[in-house]
């Protein structure tokens, strides 16, 4: 879609020629107001290049002062107004060169991005600026062969509870996934540096997609895109083998502290029904006993800690592990519990998974380990949902499974 051009006979005498500099706007420029954040006032009615220039200056200001982009109703109205100006100028989505005077993003010298206009309204708050800067850093992506131009956004992938991911394509057809943080990693015990190191080890072992770019300040991660096989299946033997290979990866300095995570989620638990609240309170003593016991266990290895079906993918006939943000040194039994409980495996499938993972028939002690860590997983899972997204929680089903697991631990005891 080409940029609209001026109609013959358009009035070219309105106002002075636009200033082509990209210097920040003064405190009270015609299109900015720093008192209450950015104010996208009415852009001049013509000629077209003046409107483009005004948009360019406004976007440059947003790049230099992202804190002026508030997330309230007033800020949303300003962004809607900006998007309206974009539509009025017929500026295409994610098209390089759409704006003659391109806005420098976040003031990085030498990095310019004309695609920032495409994400003014579709993405919430500051996400469009972060995505634009990640795309503008394409020269720093670790790719062989190196990219020849800035990738183009194809669309948003299925949104998770915590982050947002976007599929982008290079000019030579290679596809990548850009992930932007939606939560504070530290608040959830996540180490982005540990994840980045684990991704490299996992890629070298053939367990995940190739990582290409990491920027913790932007909360951004870029990896190659793995197309999913059409005839995807879920083979427990493959899952067990994937777990075994993950647990054989090099160690990290980051450790999963289940006790600290439980305490944190208890502190930030949101609204839940009275029955669920009563259940969690009734299990406090049992859970605390298991937490104290697990701190005495020293058999630690690198674990994924979130290897649910949604984070496993068959591509080219091979099973890969995705979304490594919770990876840390921990117990292999917690990783097994994540799969068994998170995927709600039937008892016979739990036995199959254990047999394939252990390479032998599971014994009573193995089942005790799995039950203990299953209790911790189910308990923390309920606290996590209650603290982050209670509207997505199936309280009744989750409560029943938690109660059953707790009774099993009380009956069989700890290893």
UniProtKB/TrEMBL annotation:
GO molecular function, one term: transferase activity
Annotated ranges, domain Aminoglycoside phosphotransferase: 156-361
The keyword Transferase appears for this protein: yes
Keywords: Transferase
Pfam families, alphabetized: APH
Region (Disordered): 1-27
InterPro entries from the UniProt entry: Aminoglycoside_PTrfase (IPR002575), CcrZ_PhaseVar_Mediator (IPR052077), Kinase-like_dom_sf (IPR011009)
Taxonomy, superkingdom: Bacteria
Gene3D superfamilies: 3.90.1200.10, Phosphorylase Kinase, domain 1
Keyword Transmembrane: no
PANTHER family cross-referenced by the UniProt entry: CELL CYCLE REGULATOR CCRZ (PTHR40086:SF1), PHOSPHOTRANSFERASE YTMP-RELATED (PTHR40086)
Protein name: Phosphotransferase
């Amino acid at each position: 879609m080409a940029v609209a051009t001026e109609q013959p006979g358009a009035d070219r005498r309105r106002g002075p020629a636009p200033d082509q500099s990209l210097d920040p706007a003064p405190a009270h420029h015609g299109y900015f107001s720093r008192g209450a954040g950015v104010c996208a006032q009415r852009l001049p009615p013509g000629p077209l290049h003046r409107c483009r220039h005004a948009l360019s200056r406004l976007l440059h200001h947003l790049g230099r002062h992202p804190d002026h982009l508030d997330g309230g109703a007033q800020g949303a109205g300003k962004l809607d107004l900006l998007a309206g100006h974009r539509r009025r100028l017929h500026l295409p989505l994610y098209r390089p060169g759409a704006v003659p005077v391109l806005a420098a993003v976040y003031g990085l010298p030498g990095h310019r991005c004309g695609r920032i206009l495409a994400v003014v309204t579709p993405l919430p708050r500051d996400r469009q600026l972060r995505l634009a800067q990640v795309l503008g850093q394409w020269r720093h992506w670790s790719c062989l062969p190196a990219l020849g131009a800035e990738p183009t956004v194809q669309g948003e992938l299925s949104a998770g509870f915590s982050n947002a991911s976007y599929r982008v394509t290079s000019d030579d057809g290679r596809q990548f996934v850009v992930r932007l943080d939606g939560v504070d990693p530290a608040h959830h015990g996540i180490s982005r540096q540990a994840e980045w190191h684990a991704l490299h080890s996992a890629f070298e072992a053939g367990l995940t997609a190739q990582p290409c770019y990491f920027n913790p300040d932007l909360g951004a991660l870029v990896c190659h895109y793995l197309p999913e096989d059409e005839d995807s299946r879920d083979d427990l033997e493959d899952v067990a083998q994937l777990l075994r290979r993950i647990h054989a990866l090099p160690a990290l300095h980051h450790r999963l502290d289940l006790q600290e995570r439980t305490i944190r989620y208890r502190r930030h638990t949101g609204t839940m029904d009275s029955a669920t609240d009563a259940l969690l309170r009734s299990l406090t003593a049992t859970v605390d006993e298991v937490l104290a016991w697990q701190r005495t266990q020293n058999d630690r290895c690198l674990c994924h800690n979130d290897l649910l079906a949604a984070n496993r993918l068959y591509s080219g006939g091979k099973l890969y592990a995705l979304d490594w943000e919770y990876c840390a040194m921990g117990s292999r039994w917690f990783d097994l519990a994540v799969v068994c409980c998170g995927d709600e495996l039937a008892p016979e499938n739990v036995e199959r998974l254990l047999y394939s993972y252990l390479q032998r028939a599971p014994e009573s002690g193995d089942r005790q380990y799995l039950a203990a860590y299953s209790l911790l997983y189910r308990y923390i899972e309920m606290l996590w949902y209650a603290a982050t997204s209670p509207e997505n929680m199936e309280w009744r089903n989750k409560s029943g499974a938690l109660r059953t697991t707790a009774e099993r631990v009380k009956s069989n005891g700890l290893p």
